[in-house]
Design a protein that fits this description.
Layout lengths: L3 E3 L4 E2 L11 E6 L4 E6 L6 E7 L5 E5 L5 E3 L3 E8 L2
Antiparallel strand pairs: 1-8, 2-8, 3-6, 3-8, 4-5, 4-7
Length: about 80
């Protein structure tokens, strides 16, 4: 398990949110079967999608500061890796 530094407040159920222009974002599913979508800011182009199987599943995403994250039932938090 990696160790991270919290960099901001949590965002509940983010929808096209850049999570405070964070470069690293930790997303935790709050209910079963969630898709996390990462899009290019303003362009609407999908960079990628990740699937979380059940509540409590988590992923840490590296993104450009203005890329946006959507997860209809999840909590996203800006983080930084501990060096």
């Amino acid at each position: 398990m990696a160790t991270f530094i919290a960099k901001g407040s949590k965002v509940t159920n983010p929808s096209a949110d850049d999570i405070g222009a964070a470069q690293f974002v930790r997303v935790v599913a709050t209910s079963a079967a969630q898709t996390v979508i990462v899009k290019v800011d303003g362009a609407g182009s999908t960079l990628g999608e990740l699937y979380l199987h059940s509540a409590g599943d988590e992923v840490t995403i590296e993104k450009a500061p203005k890329d946006e994250i959507t997860c209809s039932a999840g909590i996203a938090t800006a983080v930084a890796p501990r060096s």
